[in-house]
Amino acid sequence: MSKSLQAIRGMNDILPEQTPLWRYFEGTVARLLDNYGYKQIRMPIVEFTELFKRSIGEVTDIVEKEMYTFEDRNGDSLTLRPEGTAACVRAVLEHGITGGGQVQKLWYIGPMFRHERPQKGRYRQFHQIGLEVFNLDGPDIDAELITMTWRLWGELGIRDAVKLELNSLGTSESRGRYREALVEYLSAHHDKLDEDSQRRLKTNPLRVLDTKNADTQAVLVDAPKMADYLDDESRAHFEGLKSRLDAVGIPYVLNPKLVRGLDYYSKTVFEWVTDRLGAQGTVCAGGRYDGLVEQMGGKPTTGVGFAMGIERLVLMLETLEQIPEEISRQVDVYLCAFGEEAELAGLALAERVRDQLPNLRLQVNAGAGSFKSQFKKADKSGALYALILGDDEMAQQVVGFKPLRGQGEQQSIAWDALAAHLATCVVQG
Predict the structure, then answer these.
(1) What does the longest C-alpha to C-alpha distance in the chain come to?
(2) CA 114 to CA 280: how far, in whole Å?
(3) Which of 247, 277, 350, 420 holds its CA 20 to 30 A away from the CA of 342?
């Protein structure tokens, strides 16, 4: 027998029973960003491979090990985007929307792709919401990004389950001085480093700081600290960020080993982490990348942003049972009609109600069926109420109104009063 068709490992279907929670999360984030004055941008999921080599860095794990790269029919090397910042920078450069110092506050949503070992909360196709701000260089915009996420956690009911970690990587010059000191220190303890850290010492030494190896972590206890190498500008910027977070009342932890996995970061870096999801503890992360636009061929343009993983945050909502009751119910009212005449009248009545109550989730029975079978489908739909149209109701131009959840007797409602009655029972009740 031929092998049954199935999804690629690490690339998952999101089934109908799961999508309401995804839509709730995505809608909550979109409304919040609208309220803060951010505009959505949509980029292709495929870009030239060179874009990510130039932006992320050729000696990062993403470029070396994780990208889905292939040649198209023209012989061009293309890559499924592993992250969104580089693509967003490419878009604003291509269309000139940051020229002349224009401030752009942008956000995007969509799938990203990395060839990693799939595990709970980490997939090969994963979804992110990202946000990028260009041509604002002060700590006030860094603070706004963090404040927005803090507000989001509150709206989602998960604020007590996340922790903010902060660090500053300084400018490229101060980071270069720190890198030299770190390499000198780690080279003196080379034999005590794990194999991966020994390799990174030659290619990307700052990544040694976020190793999970216990022996290497012990070596790092006495390693030089980035804070001791910060230039005055970076130090003032970081103090300005912390004072703003203090003013809003957002708690944070300073983590001198926080470096992020991408080469383009400078000054502020931050992560929102949780201990509720096992090994996959980071749910949102980002920072400042003031040199990236120039590195990619544009004029000097400051930038700052973050990305959050939708799979992990949806999993968090499920784990913490922070799922609003209304999103688990996809139907408010189910209309049952018996006989062709009633079906025609029911279709017209349903459309009139939808005209008056556009947010009402009203499902009309399809496929006819007996009284018992239609009511079984009405109950299975999760609707709060059933509407009934049969011969008696047709003769009186009323509709039967029957509660399906909780207490209440069936009653008859005139057709022209139905929308007002539903507005009271469903929208308000």
Answers:
(1) 94
(2) 15
(3) 420
Name the band, by pLDDT with cuts 50, 70 and 90, for residue 273: very high
CA distances from 196 to 89, 149, 205, 214, 335 (A): 31, 33, 11, 13, 63
pLDDT computed for residue 261 by the predictor: 60
> In the structure, what pLDDT confidence band is assigned to residue 56 with cuts at 50, 70 and 90?
confident
Predicted confidence at residue 374, as pLDDT, reads 95
- At residue 344, the 3 state secondary structure works out as helix
Mean per-residue pLDDT of the chain: 92
CA distance 385 to 391: 20
Q: At residue 201, does pLDDT exceed 60?
A: yes
Q: How far is CA 68 from CA 5, 42, 53, 81, 308, in A?
A: 21, 20, 13, 8, 21
Nearest Cα residue to 346 out of 405, 410, 418, 404: 418
Name the residue among 191, 190, 192, 194 with its Cα closest to residue 212: 194
- CB-CB contact of 53 with 345 (8 Å): no
Enter the tokens of residue 282: 């980071």
Residue 93 and residue 79: Cα distance in Å, rounded? 19
Q: Taking the model in full, what pTM does it have?
A: 0.89
Lowest average pLDDT, out of 106-115, 178-187, 336-345, goes to 178-187
Is the confidence at residue 408, as pLDDT, over 60? yes
Residue 350 and residue 344: Cα distance in Å, rounded? 10
Residue 386: count of CB within 10 angstroms of its CB: 23
Given a contact cutoff of 8 angstroms between Cβ atoms, the answer to whether 111 and 126 are in contact is: yes
Report yes or no: 269 and 238 within 8 Å, Cβ to Cβ.
no
Q: Rounded to whole angstroms, how far apart are CA atoms 197 and 207?
A: 8
Give me the residue label for tokens 């544009």.
Answer: 298
- CA dist 398 and 346 (Å) reads 11
**Contact status, residue 264 vs residue 85, Cβ threshold 8 Å:** yes
- Cβ-based neighbour number of residue 186 at 10 Å: 23
When pLDDT is averaged across residues 34-40 and rounded to a whole number, the result is 97
pLDDT band, very low/low/confident/very high, at 5 (cuts 50, 70, 90): very high
The answer to whether 339 and 369 are in contact (CB under 8 A) is no
